[in-house]
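S.,

Sequence below, as promised.
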Amino acid sequence: AIILHSIGGHADWPEVISPLRTTLPEFNWATLSIQLPVISPENNIEEYGKTFQKTNQRITAAVRELRKRKFSKIVIIGHGFGALSSLVYFEKIKPKYIDALILISLQDYVYLKPPVNLLRLIEKIKIPTLDIFGSLDFEEGVESAPDRRLASKKNGNYLYTQAEVKGANHSFDNMENNLIQHIVDWIK
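The prediction came back faster than expected:
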């Protein structure tokens, strides 16, 4: 499993990322959490829209390394901005060695420059996809869930599953085990 953190995070972020990284191996999944590009603190947050090319290069390098090590199944798990980054990766790279995609707390980052059309990106995904979010997640992510589900069906991706975890916030505070169990059950 290649794990992608969100904005302001890092490859072992204590919320969501570290629990996934350390617990998935207990279920026979190796993990590779990669550091996504960060922007300088003096830049505006909208500049994260310019990091996708570097992110795509890092994901490609991670996939190449896992293939070299003979891993036969590769899943990308992205949280927040990492989830959006994985969708951009699928649009730009069209990878053939990714078997599934897990989007945790996905939302549209409307302030990004250049802008990204989240629903259009979802329409293009044709592999098994889990879109999981908390009922107490950021409002935009919860409210856009029905639109994301419809976008997946627009292009006939009937391998798209959406799950809402009751009582979970964006970081799945004190609900990490619940999140991981959902993911493990879905992967099976």
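The mean pLDDT is 96.

Coffee later?
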